[in-house]
Amino acid sequence: MSPRTRFGAGVAAIVVAFLTTLTGVPLAHAAPEQTGVDRFGSCMAGAKTGRVLLLVDESRSLTGTDPDAARVTAAKFLTEQLSTYAADTGAKLDVAIAGFSDTYSERKGWTRLSKDSLGSLTSTLDGFADRAGGTDTDYWLALDGARKTMRSGDAPSCRMIAWFTDGELDFTIRSNADKPYAPGVPLDSEQNRKKMVEAAKTSLCRPGGLVDQVRSSDIITVAIGLAGKDVKAADFDLLKSIATGEQTSTGPCGDVRSPVPGDFYLADDIDDLLFEFDKLSTPGQPPLTSETGACAVKVCDEGKHRFVLDSSVGSVNILASADRAGLTPVLVSPDGTETRMAGDKAGTAEVGGVRIGYSFPSGKAVSIRMTNPQAGQWRGAWALVFLAPDSEAAAKTRSQIHIRGDLSATWLGEKNTALHSGDTVDMKFGLRNGAGKQIDPTDIPGTASLTTELVPASGRAITIGRDIPKARIARSRPLDLGSVAPGRATLRMTLSVTTASARDHEGVLVQGTALSPSTVELPVTVDPPVGYPKVDGKLDFGTFEGEGTATATLKVTGPGCVWLDKSTIVAAPDGADGLAISSDASAKEKCVKVAEGAERELTVRLAVPTAVNGDVNGTLRVLLGPDQAGEQPIATEVPFTAALQKPLNTTSFAIALIVALILGPLIPLLVLYLAKWLTSRIPGRALRAEQIQVRVDGSTVTRGGAPLAVRDDEFVRLVPGLASSTRKLDLGGIALHTRIGRSPFGTGYVVATAPGMAGAAGRSGDRVGATPDARLPLAVHNSWFVLHDPRGPENAATVVLLVGGDAGRSVIDRLVTEVGEHLPRVLPGLRADALRNIPENERPVTQPGPGNPFGGGGTGGGAPANPFGPPPSGGAGGFGPPPQQGPAQQGPPQGPPQQGPPAGGNPFGGNPYGPPAGPPSGGPGYQGGPGQQGGPGTPGRQNPFG
Fold this sequence. Notes:
Layout: H1 5-13, E1 18-20, E2 26-28, H2 36-47, E3 49-57, H3 62-65, H4 70-89, E4 92-100, E5 104-112, H5 115-126, H6 139-151, E6 159-165, H7 190-205, H8 210-215, E7 219-226, H9 237-244, E8 262-267, H10 270-278, E9 288-293, E10 295-296, E11 305-309, E12 313-322, E13 328-332, E14 338-340, E15 347-351, E16 354-359, E17 365-371, E18 380-388, E19 396-405, E20 407-411, E21 424-427, E22 429-433, E23 438-439, E24 447-456, E25 462-469, E26 477-480, E27 487-498, E28 502-503, E29 509-510, E30 518-526, E31 534-535, E32 539-545, E33 548-557, E34 560-571, E35 580-582, E36 592-594, E37 599-608, E38 614-625, E39 634-645, H11 650-663, H12 667-679, E40 687-697, E41 700-703, E42 706-707, E43 728-730, E44 735-739, E45 749-753, E46 758-761, E47 767-768, E48 773-776, E49 783-788, E50 796-804, H13 809-836, E51 874-876
Parallel strand pairs: 3-4, 3-6, 6-7, 7-8, 10-18, 32-39
Antiparallel strand pairs: 1-2, 4-5, 9-19, 11-18, 12-17, 12-19, 13-14, 13-18, 15-16, 16-17, 20-22, 21-26, 22-23, 24-25, 24-27, 27-30, 28-29, 31-33, 33-37, 34-36, 34-38, 35-37, 38-39, 40-41, 40-50, 40-51, 41-42, 43-44, 44-45, 45-48, 46-49, 47-48, 49-50
Helix pairs in contact: 4-5, 4-10
């Protein structure tokens, strides 16, 4: 097997239970160490409730690394897969969505994942396609925001952050910045930028810092980095350390490294992203991964991704891809039926009762779901292949097959067995199917084995049974608790199943598929021995604001006495020096005494000398004294947590309150204006633009002496600045700005302005202001407007066509037709409006006689026009602005045009039909730069298009 470089690195980070050879036969190997995703899945299998926060980068660099918003496609795919996982397992899974760059923004609060809510979640993710304008990639703000979101509400024990970014921790140099981890540090120089990076890293990674706050809160972090042309794997070393606890080139990060904090994956492109996100879609059940080739024209054995199903399997999800487009995925059933999935469109099929649904999340990948294990065709050897349309070109294919076992282990004594420190307890286990019904392990068609262990808070696992074969799973086994201290623990049950071998439709025996081990983790409590008191398993101080003393109580159940021995702080915010835990019951003589069956409370205090923001996590060592004399006390570890918060600035709050009281009646109106402002943006869609100089002769619009038409070499370049929605756009001297207008109702609009020019929208002729300026809809795509110099020729104008990046020739032809039909009507009205705002003594005087063939028109003093100026009509390539239409030039030209950069700052090259590349001398209508003034006695007027 020959994995791709990046993909191989990602797979190495993910633990896969079985690899597949080129022939598709699974080979077993030693059980791997548990990953972060495994931890989350094991927790979900036991608790059946959890949270996943999708944390998505919004920084500016994404316009280059992810121009097609692959992160959005992959995140939506993950959300859909998680929805399927929740439905299949009956788990209650809440999802929230947040973005980060130089700020942290919660885009969607906690939402229970279901078919009904999936649409609103994917719609929120769609919004990230237009969010790539952030100035920083601030890991600290991202993780701190995620910490707060994870803590909000009634937080379950199973929590995971799925964190995506395209770059390293970095900041943009600017005039000011206010970072909570670097108070007073500006961002106004390269030196200070480096200081800011170090300050953020120190606050994140110091012992007990922000990273440890998250880890010690049992929040799992899974990070995915998108590499690319200008982004290297080493750029993600800090992120990898944050997620996994591994030491990288950036050094160690955090002290809390057990259990495994999380995972890090690296992706190169959309397909890599899909595969890495897909690994999160069945927590606790890693996919079976294989790589092989493709088949030419028809199905072949060497191109098969094989898997065998039987009644122990509940459903199958497959993500597969080829290394080039144009291949057709084919699913081959046990009886040889081929289901071809072509056309890049989602579809469904049914084979022998097996329901098959498929979609294409990218141009080279296919996602398949198989259900209905009761169907006759379910059991047997299946295969997925990719067919190439020709026999010459080779292709590589890969797959991740999630086979959800319909079986899981369960502890049969959960409700009636007490675990006491020092005792030996009989433990009995069983298996249940997806419907929750207990089954006889010997009925499993293939092979199965069960491993069970108890993991106390100390972390040292005690084996109850290892690799117990299916015939002996139902037998009881002893658990020795002689060395286990009272307190919280985890009962871990791992079931390994291999489906029964089967023959394919050609009679070839295919070995059964070894499913990824299914682990269930149940939180349990090991009680003290009989005759000792019990205490709660956790202490939560809640949220404490400011400085002072926070208090919390532990419930104590008798008989016996309890006192606080000592405490350990594992993680705390920056500036939280001096935190201290205390209790009046700090010695045996001061213990809290409780009678048999009675309940009392042990009060614990947390001293907070300085107001800070962040979580405090640690453990309390509590001693439990028996009710009988002569017995020694025993210790139990109780984890504690507190959320510290700086108080509200009372001065600022008072000012805000006064302002609110004064402006109270206006607030609803301001909210309407704010909502209108927030939505007034030019959509972030690809746009092409052309500026064309035209003449209107009666009812005819001409270009270069011929009827208006568009050349084949036009509309070939995209307008920059539309990677996301925006409030302003530059078309090379023509500015588009959004406006909300005076009314709080309705929608905003776009105003097109160019110095010295009046403007009007296309067929409607809409205009605003005294100039006036063209008024366009927010969706400027596939529209046009006209610009006109009222001091110039009355029949000359510049038409600006705005065409969507995905529009075809028919759209361009339609706009040209509209110009021909409506410009003869719009232009005279526009000129009349513009002249009203020009003093009468400055208005041009129309001279009799034919127009100037060089563009001077019939206005002004009748002097000859500059023969080196722009032609009277023609086309501007790219976004080159229109030439200035001014009064007739005063005097003859003073030399040939100078050579220089393309006119008007056109980033796509000069315009062979527009103004000359260099500024001509002379004439009051042009002022190209220093020393290039207008003609004698006439002040030069700045030409914004030169």
